Amino acid sequence: MAIASSKREGDLTELVRTYQAGVWRYIRFLGADEALADDLTQETFLAVWKKRFIDHTPAATRQYLRTTARNLYLMSLRKRSRQPALDRLELADEVWQQLGGGDDELMLDVLRECLETLNGRGRQAIDLCYRDNCSRAEIGRQMDLSDDGVKSLLRRTRELLRRCVEQKRNLES
Amino acid sequence: MSQQDEMRQELEDQFTDQALREVLGGRRPPDLTARILSAVRPVRRWRSRRRQLALAAAVLLLIGAAVGYVAYRRVEDPAPSRIAERPAPEQPKGIPVRAPTAEEPTVPADPNNAVPTNSSAPTRQEQLASLVDEFNSFMHEKRYAEAEVVYQRAAELAPDELVVRQLKNTVKLVRLSERYRSMRRAEGYVTALNNVESAAIPYDDDEPFRFEPSRGWERLTRTRKALSRTYPVADLTLPSAVDGPPVSYPDPEVWQMLAERRKKMGDAVMRVDVNKRLRTQVLLNHKDTPLKQVLDDLSKLAQLPMLLDLDSAVKEHVAEDTPVTIKLTSEISTKSALDLVLKPLHLDFRIDDGRLRIGSEQDCGPQTFVDEDHDRYARIIENPFLSATENPLSTFGVDVDTASYARVRRCLTQEGELPPADAVRIEELLNYFDYDYAPPNGELPFAPHVELATCPWQPEHRLLRIGLKGREVPPDERPATNLVFLLDVSGSMEPDDRLPRAVRAMRLLVDRLRENDRVAIVVYAGESGLVLPSTAGFQKERITSTLENLHADGSTNGASGIRLAYDTAQESFIKGGTNRVILCTDGDFNVGTTSTGELERLIEERAKGGVFLTVLGFGMGNHNDDLMEKLADKGNGNYGYVDSEAEARKLLVEQAGGTLVTIAKDVKVQIEFNPRLVAAYRLIGYEDRLLEPEDFNDDKKDAGEIGAGHAVTALYEIVPAGKNAELPKVDELKYQRPAEFTTAAASDELMTMKVKYKRPDAEKSEGALIVPVPDSSLTFDRASPDFRFAAAVAGLGLLLRDSQFKGDLTFDAVVEIAGQAIGADPQGRRAEFLELVRKAKTLDGRRAGDAPGNSPSSP
Predict the structure, then answer these.
(1) B13 in contact with A at a CB cutoff of 8 Å?
(2) Own/partner pairs, B105-108, CB within 8 angstroms, 24+ separation
(3) Rounded Cα distance, B825 and B827, in Å
(4) What letter does residue B305 receive in the DSSP assignment?
(5) Most exposed among A12, B434, B593, B645, judged by the fewest C-beta atoms under 10 Å?
(6) ipTM of the complex, rounded to two decimals
(7) Quick one: average pLDDT of B76-88?
(8) Which residues is B351 bridged to in the sheet?
(9) In terms of pLDDT, which residue wins out, B47 or B667?
(10) Mutate which of A9, A30, A45 to disrupt the B interface (most B C-beta within 10 Å)?
């Protein structure tokens, strides 16, 4: 898909619709707040549009958009006179690729599947924390657990989910 | 590295958090399509308009130029200009306009407008010429606005004049040109802004720019500094400067240190190699052969250089041609063969610069040999029989170590020789095996068990077995554990049965960890270092990858490592949990605080902080068994020897509960014998765990600890009253009489067992457990299988130690007893024991019978 001539705007629309959520998530993951993530997502696609970017494969496109977004995030930090932690950004990108497996939408689908198989106290704690936005103390009260117990249960369940996602993805690949 | 790992963990958590918030909390990213597209359109429209304007300007410029040129040609042709032409303003600032002369007819000429040429007032033509002149002047000065005003005046004066139309075209052209230039400036500005934006994407993804990793920078900096130091001023005449980068040599002290280190490492490797060759199995058959020839044969068989030091040998009246007789019927190790050849001649050998130097016992004997190259064991003085009247109390601290059994097994199966007597600690042989003890009920940390029957090697004596069985703690109920792996990575740990095996063993333990547990890894060689800070148990991949990246190198500074490990354990101390340092080493502490006393004091001091110690020994050849055992003893710990992968699994998987959960510490046992029924008794083993009677009630006196599921077994050989105990005679006391019996002595109680212990985090002992033991006339063959098997194990220990208390016991008898008591034996350990006894019997037979004329060397 080449963004060129009369087709360019249509192609850009398609590109934005396909990848904007991933770019936004990635920028948030790097540490931007929601407003900054909105702005940088827009800037990323504008930069890509001006560059006459050619979309060869979805993986390459995601990688390109991520690189652009990361550079823009870096620029935004510098503009605000903040010293960017380059090590952390590099590591964040590595973790994103490792856990997201290159396709964050697919990863979220797999996570949904894993959540369906999760039950018991782990599921209850995860629901209370992420669906109902309960504090750790609140979860502790509801589940009759200490603060540390909740922390430990959540951590264990998250680890379980991570492993499940990894296994399912390996199976699919 | 450590910070990076922590950061990675944090990012992984953040990733999962974000994903879960989106999936469960419904916080999808916003749809920014409209916003992005609307931001794209103005840019697109501006670009399009910019192109249109540029095109229009170019067309107008061309038209203007063409019109101007035509007009110029028409004005120029009739007559030379009266008005002096100024240098034409540069294009496109205006086409130079030539002012008409007063005489020349205007085209088209209007006769009505004709003005007399000789009038004093300026004629219209003159006025026009003046205006044109003024116009040209303004154009020349680039004052286009004023020029346009002049044109308007000229247009009012002579609107139809060709020259005025020319002025009009020039003004229009200049206006367009100016507008075009202004647009160009705007475009340049936009381009500059675009370039700034492009700078936000500095890397080409196809050829990303990568900075040199930090290590590379360090290297470059070092090279640069070395260059500037070595060659402050570039001297191209120096060959190294011409041929390649110059070499910077370290200071002489550094050289010296490197050379020493290399030599030490080389020595360590050489020692390991020589010891390996000493285990080569050989078969010799010589009768009255010269010693030199026998040694040459051995040297060839073992591929080990040997040097007969004649100056030293002559002290024992031995020369090269001294006749030697040795006849072996089966293969034995080179070391055993050397012992058989050299001992009768009072010669010995030592490793010297990669070869064996053979000389007198005085020069090459154990004083020098053992310290450097052999496994080191503490001397064991067996417990004697004690009179129940004189010494009614027998007190000892429990011991759950099992290392001695594994070492005996390695000697018999892998080294092909009998173990040294001091390597055989009978209590560790006994505790190696599982017995069918019932676990405790209620809150007690362990359950006591006793059994009494006749003694198999002294039928007139009784054998008493006492056992303590620790409470089992299911894996999901055990408290959190804070472990520090302290790994010896010195050069001597290089062989596969040392560091690589230790790493594999630690991986087994890591697999058993739960997420609440924590692990840190400290290594020590010449210097100690924390290679993994305290890390949560669920980060197994991180822990194992750290383990796998370790490699053996350099000398050993054990004391420094131990200090760092205890500090690390204290930093991540888990209150109410188990805090333990697991030391993996061959015990070759040869740098730093190496005196045994200092190390013991160090460990004893650190153990007071509530951190327990597990010592795992690896390798043979320079293994310091004595030190390992003492460290475990002083450090509230236990000691295991890992001679195989199976042993690692037993210690760290099957008995993980014992390592990960401590249920009682300072566990002491005191037996009070009833002198009415007991003449004498002897505690078998536990020689280094004996306590004074008063120590039983002294909470400051340290004793052994018991982990979850651990069992402790001890055997007493008892001489019943009325039997001859063969005790040394003591004269009657002059000032007092022997104590009288109490009424309790009249009962049928043979003895009373008392057990004291502390909870793992307590400073005071719990009340003693008291178990009276009635007399029993049970015969040995009717005792439980576990009792008989334990007796067989102790029997093997007595035989291997060549104990004075072994009575009529033989290896065959041990095989027979153990064979009948083997039971279910799910892990095959009792069957393996039988094999060991048979192997020991074979080796013992060779030792005694295969060298006629040579007295058997003591093990």
Answers:
(1) yes
(2) B105/B78, B106/B158, B106/B160, B106/B161, B106/B162, B106/B163, B107/B74, B107/B162, B108/B160
(3) 6
(4) -
(5) B645
(6) 0.89
(7) 40
(8) B356
(9) B667
(10) A45
